[in-house]
Amino acid sequence: MIRLDALISNSGAYSRSEIKVLVKKGRVSVDGQTVKDYSLKIPETASVAVDGKVLDTEKYIYIMLNKPAGYISATEGEKNVIDLVPESMFRKGLFPVGRLDKDTEGLLLITNDGDFSHSLMSPNKNIIKTYRAVLERSVTESDTEAFAKGITLRDGTEFKPAVLRSDGEKAGIVEISEGKYHQVKLMFAATDNKVLYLERLSIGGLTLEPSLKRGECLRMTPEMLKKI
Ligand code: URA
Question: pTM score, two decimals?
Fold first, then answer.
């Protein structure tokens, strides 16, 4: 059971003081019945409406963003990925799950569910992230072997074995199971190559929706979440 004002608050549409006024004025109904007590305890599954319009009271939201270049993976500061979340999906406490560099594009998840993010980012989960990189030079067999062995940088940073395959001239597909800072760029730099453009294509079994344009968000369904 949950208090009515808390359930309405999940929708992100109203402040606590607005909710109190709405309820007192008789504009709120629970399962079709008008209620005037905002502290009423109701089931979390109750259908709550304001002026007859049913609210989305799910506490957690999971958003797929097709990140464009020029946005930072942060919740504030210069142009950031939360700025791209449309009002209909906005909730308090939204944050990106992991980071893509400012110039990296593609699949980025945004949520307000800390446990979900934590379990996705956990290194021992070994969730494979797939990237497409446009490169200064084409991928060779020895690059693929170096990635497969696991690359160690001069400063001692070690990257776990990764899959690299050519994606035509001067482009490659990379699969990594960690998410270290600038990882893909650093791995290519270690093989005397340079990433000119980077896009994330998938996280686990979840692939960027082809219909989602750069800068667009979609609300993920439970089926989509299961694919990860
Ligand atoms: N690796 C990078 O170098 N940059 C990213 O944005 C993601 C992975």
Answer: 0.90
